[in-house]
């Protein structure tokens, strides 16, 4: 009897875990609808670049300070947060350590928008 209760409880908990994990409550990111045109142009340039400067580059979208920001992470760049843009494509300057720490601590809902295939 105890084995049956444990088995049923395990199956029930597994079912809840799987359903909660799959139903996060938001729809998947739609590149065509949710990516600003200025960013699509940058991604097009990066994806056709033949110099390998953009090899392994990733573009993320975060919510920060009540708006979206876009981080273009270029692994070979000496400046990790140099390529940070607001919703309109204006570059966001991380001027000091406090601002960097605020970004790192308070950014949320990160979404990978694009990744280099090189």
How far from one another are the termini? 57 Å
Query: Secondary-structure element order, as H and E?
Result: HHHEEEHE
Strand order of the largest sheet: 3-2-1-4
Quickly count the helices.
Answer: 4
The helix content, as a percent range, equals 25-40%
- Count of separate structural domains: 1
Structural class: alpha+beta
Shape: globular
Largest sheet: 4 strands, antiparallel
What share of residues are in beta strands?
15-25%
Oligomer: single chain
* Count of beta strands: 4
Low-confidence stretches: 7-25
- What does the radius of gyration come to? 20 Å
Q: Indicate the mean pLDDT.
A: 83
Structure explained in plain terms:
The chain is of the alpha+beta class and 118 residues long. It has one domain. The protein has helices at residues 2-22, 31-34, 37-48, 97-106, and strands spanning 58-64, 67-73, 84-86, 108-115. It has a four-stranded antiparallel sheet with strand order 3-2-1-4, covered by helices on one side. The longest helix is centred in the N-terminal third of the chain and has 21 residues, at 2-22. The chain is globular, with a radius of gyration of 20 Å. Mean pLDDT is 83; it is low at 7-25.
State the main characteristics.
118 residues, alpha+beta, 4-stranded antiparallel sheet, 4 strands, 40% helix, globular
TL;DR of this structure?
The chain is α+β, with helices and mostly antiparallel strands.
Give the helix/strand layout.
Layout: H1 2-22, H2 31-34, H3 37-48, E1 58-64, E2 67-73, E3 84-86, H4 97-106, E4 108-115
Antiparallel strand pairs: 1-2, 1-4, 2-3
């Amino acid at each position: 009897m105890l084995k049956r209760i444990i088995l049923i409880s395990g199956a029930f908990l597994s079912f809840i875990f799987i359903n909660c994990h799959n139903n996060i409550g938001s729809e998947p990111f739609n590149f065509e609808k949710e990516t600003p045109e200025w960013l699509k142009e940058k991604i097009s340039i990066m994806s056709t670049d033949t110099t390998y400067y953009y090899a392994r580059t990733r573009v993320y979208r975060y919510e920060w300070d009540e708006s979206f920001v876009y981080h273009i992470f270029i692994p070979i760049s000496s400046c990790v947060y140099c390529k940070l843009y607001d919703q309109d494509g204006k570059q966001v300057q991380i001027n000091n350590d406090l601002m960097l720490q605020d970004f790192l601590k308070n950014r949320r809902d990160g979404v990978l928008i694009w990744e280099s295939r090189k």
